[in-house]
Amino acid sequence: MIIDGKKAATELLATLANEVTALKESTDITPSLTVVLVGEDAASQVYVRNKIKQTVAVGMISNEIRLPDTTSQAELLAQLLTLNSDDSVHGILVQLPLPKHIDESVVIAAINPEKDVDGFHAMNSGRLLNGEAGALVPCTPQGCIILAKQYLGDDLSGQHAVVIGRSNIVGKPVALLLLQENCTVTIAHSRTKNLAQICQQADILVAAVGRAEFVKASWVKKGATVIDVGINRIEADGSDGKVNGKAKLVGDVDFNAVSEVCGAITPVPGGVGPMTIACLLKNTLKAAIRQAPSA
Ligand code: NAD
């Protein structure tokens, strides 16, 4: 089975739109998300445009603050301070990467954790670690769990999940979420020995490496659920008949070969990617509800 991330994201967005309507009717609160974009990075501009479009589509308020790449760290922190104390702003997202002269960790730490809809603030990582319901959980990992459940159903308990990657953005939080789902979790990374043998034990294999078609069919147990987080741009040779341009997107998994072995797999594009924005808006709604005066 190919797990359709586009369809799952469309369904989640439709549910969110209904919940936003219900919230507006019962409380007069319209969830609002402010995206801060520093500099001219082309990919970031595309991501931000998509986020704004989807935010408006589910009935939320979308604000964008664009700052030049000459913005100093102090100026960005001052901007965040203003947003932190503005009651009409429920979610704040600083688009990464930031220009080199700005320290991302300082910026993330400066966001009010209650408005940290990316879920990168240490307060939210800690809440996730402790299994607290109030955590704002990073968006891509949330999407991974929703997609795994599309195939396996809601109960993941007892499954052996292997996560390749230990970043704060994907690897670690997805491993914690799988643990919360009562999986037995193994985290593999760049220093892991016998990676293929470890992957072969996985009922659920999550690849968050950033290396094109890294996971081979021989590493995958028959019938496993494979969640491919990777987004890698490679030269297109046109051999698959789909691509006429110069580059194409592939995941961290050798999709065609692994599809023959696994039970279910997320494609790239059209798998985890579309879930990320949907989960961002899920976080924004959660943040807005938690900030409501009566909450
Ligand atoms: P990262 O570079 O921060 O982390 C990569 C991880 O892979 C590291 O923890 C490292 O230990 C591990 N790794 C590297 N080489 C390895 C090897 N040879 N064997 C085993 N492990 C190895 O990347 P990230 O931010 O976690 O992102 C991972 C991938 O997911 C990238 O392709 C990124 O573009 C993609 N991504 C996609 C989305 C989405 O919305 N779909 C969101 C975030 C990231």
Lay out the secondary structure.
Blueprint: H1 5-27, E1 32-38, H2 42-57, E2 61-67, H3 73-84, E3 91-94, H4 104-110, H5 122-130, H6 139-152, E4 160-164, H7 171-180, E5 184-188, H8 195-200, E6 204-207, E7 225-228, E8 232-235, E9 247-250, H9 255-259, E10 264-265, H10 272-291
Parallel strand pairs: 1-2, 1-3, 4-5, 4-6, 6-7, 7-10
Antiparallel strand pairs: 8-9
Helix pairs in contact: 1-10, 6-7, 6-10
The structure holds nicotinamide-adenine-dinucleotide.
Nicotinamide-adenine-dinucleotide binds at residues 140, 164-167, 169-171, 188-190, 192, 195, 208-211, 229-232, 272-273, 276.
Brief overview:
This protein is an alpha/beta fold and 295 residues long.
Name some characteristics of this structure.
295 residues, alpha/beta, Rossmann fold, 2 domains, 5-stranded parallel beta sheet, 10 helices, 10 strands, 16% strand, globular, binds nicotinamide-adenine-dinucleotide
